[in-house]
Amino acid sequence: MSLITVGTMAFDAIETPFGKVDRIVGGSATYVAYAASNFVKPVQQISIVGYDFPKEEMDELRKRGVHLDGVEIVKDKKSFFWSGRYHEDMNSRDTLITDLNVLLDFDPKIPDSYQGAEFLMLGNLAPKIQMNVIQELKQRPKLIVMDTMNFWMETAMPELQIVLKYVDLLLVNDAEARQLTGQFSLVKAAKSIMQMGPKYLIIKKGEHGALLFHGADVFFAPALPLEDVFDPTGAGDTFAGGFIGHLARTGDISFENMKRGIIVGSAMASFCVEKFGPTRLKEITASDISGRIQQFKDLVSFEIELV
Ligand code: AMP
After folding, report:
1. Residue 82 pairs with which residues in a beta bridge?
2. In a designed cystine with 83, which of 41, 97, 186, 307 is the match (CB 3.0 to 4.6 A)?
3. pTM of the full predicted structure?
4. To which H or E segment does residue 188 belong?
């Protein structure tokens, strides 16, 4: 089943306790596409880049079955640029620079060849643009998943609240869930977010795993305990790509299958953090992925006799 992904394609400058890169390809849609293309083809990308975005990166994505007809190239502007510095614990970071550049005039057009897609991943992007994409689709996808971040809560909360009414599942981290609702308890925050629109909610907790909520149901998946986390940038988007990639591959949007999707997303995210940027995602094979999913199964499987 086909999947449309919308988000940024960017350059990032990243500083972690393990090192520093001044300019590496990133962006929410880039990570989603690298992760999802392991499970579903085509991945139909919608984004915008400047004259400086590398052609080799586009070719690399195309090779993986990512369609780029919906990626606009602006000849006289620079690509979106983000820079961040991670704290010692690697679970939190400071954004140092967000240069919107081409994003300022992004007005996404959906190519005809993308119409009719069953799955839509609204990657982290201005909520107004996420909304435009939903409105441009002639047929509502079977599942709309949306990611967002604190930056948009601080600069575009009213627009964010509108898009929330149109999506099926929201993906946020614990800090964002608290910021969005003003509730410290994640269970209370989840209830309040599900009243804002989405029927499903995933709250990511970095190295502490992820929670899936739907009505009164809750599911928890751990993160794989890794000896070294090198760079967490893009882990959230990679998680999203693995999650929706699995759902699109199977065509099954039941809560039970979303549980499996969370494991696939967690497995993909565990690769992402092993090297800077999307480097590791470009190296892994199908057998690396199934090996890691097996590690997750082993991590959480136990038997117990109830008295
Ligand atoms: P994550 O670590 O999953 O939050 O994703 C990091 C990626 O998101 C980086 O590659 C950035 O280029 C991109 N990014 C950072 N800030 C924004 C923003 N405000 N809107 C869209 N994408 C962003």
Report:
1. 12, 98
2. 97
3. 0.96
4. helix 186-196
